[in-house]
Design goal:
Elements (H helix, E strand, L loop, with lengths): L6 H17 L6 H21 L8 H11 L4 H8 L3 H8 L7 H11 L3 H7 L1
Helix pairs in contact: 1-2, 4-5
């Protein structure tokens, strides 16, 4: 399948995908399954290019993103990073600046780029 470049083409592909999906997986021929896979990959690539979410620009935002990605609650994150829960809460709420220990833990435990951490601290 060719790359999707326009909204109208994307909408047409999505309508075709829906039509095939409404048939039910068990009712699709092998060629329809191949076509469906090709169309969904093209639609996914288009969506990835069009609907981008900007990366966080603050340490707090990046920590929260990693917390979401790792499916951690704030309490679990504090334990993982080796910091007290109140300290983590204050940092995430902008009431306290992250210290060297916190930034080191963000790098080692959350794999946040040290250049980002030092540039934003």
């Amino acid at each position: 399948m060719k790359t999707i470049k326009t909204v109208s083409r994307y909408n047409k592909i999505m309508a075709d995908i829906l039509q095939l999906m409404n048939k039910g997986e068990a009712n699709l021929s092998k060629s329809e399954i191949v076509k469906l896979r090709s169309m969904t990959l093209a639609a996914q690539a288009y969506e990835k290019n069009i609907y981008t979410i900007p990366a966080p620009s603050t340490v707090e935002g990046m920590i929260e993103l990693r917390m979401y990605e790792m499916k951690l609650k704030q309490k679990e994150l504090a334990k993982l990073m080796g910091v007290a829960e109140p300290k983590l809460s204050q940092i995430l709420n902008g009431k306290r600046e992250p210290d060297v220990h916190f930034l080191k833990a963000a790098f080692l435990k959350l794999h946040i780029d040290p250049a980002f951490l030092l540039g934003k601290a």
